[in-house]
Amino acid sequence: MGSSGYTCIRRTFCCLNVLVMLSGGIFLGMGLWLHLSYQGYATLYPNHLGLSADSLFILIGGLSIVISFFGCCGSFFESRCCLIIYFSLIIVLFLSEFIVGALVFVFRSGIARAVTMDIKDGIVKHYNATDRGGMFSPSVSSIWDRMQMELQCCGVNSYEDWYHIEHWEREKWVPKSCCRTRHTMSPELFEGSGYDVDDDCRKKQRPELWWSQGCSKAIQMLLIQKLHVVGIVAIVIAFFQLFGLIISMLLFCTIKHKRKSDTYKSYSPTIDSSGQRQSYLDD
Predict the structure, then answer these.
(1) 3-class SS of residue 199
(2) Residue 124, CB half-sphere, CA atoms under 13 Å: how many?
(3) Between 20 and 30 A from 145 (CA), which of 94, 112, 166, 273?
(4) What is the pTM (predicted TM-score) of this model?
């Protein structure tokens, strides 16, 4: 590899890792702020706060900083040790993603049932219509209300999931976000009462006024519709991981070859224009 090509790749790799490190720092800072200010709020899985937004942000930010640190040091200081650590971490991350993906695919039915049961338990114990959380870390109630209004769904599997939750124990009520919006122009649609009208249908025990579809099915349909976006994100992540693996090994081998060449050169005699040996020093 020519000197200019080697330098270009090394600097590009270093700059890329600096950007990843800065992004990781932003994620880490957001995660710490959420954890300290709104602990456990931004999650649909309140029984497992390790899966909340603050924990995920801290995990992503910490991993990004650690991995990019070794990549940046390896390219900037031409350290083979840092490069091999960077390569190993990327391999471990790739294998972890593959193993987790394979396990989720194999045990998808059991995992789906367990997640559904825990989310149901979460709304029973943690839904509170008066608790809205903050702007950047909404509460369980705020997340559910917004999701049900935007996806036009009610409950996990159906509106019956809202019956007898702790916030209105012994009552067959649903959140106001389950109510269909009022349609005055089309007689074919039910006349419900969402947030845009004064009438409150959530306590009327009339299911025809509520969204009939469960949110789990609505989310599945949304993911199918956005499958191309999920695929593009997965391809981009895989590309950067593959790029990091190839460039780190290329730099590792080039640095090794470069050092051998310099060692050989330092012990090679220099010859002046007359053909006489002068020294064993570098040019």
Answers:
(1) coil
(2) 12
(3) 112
(4) 0.69
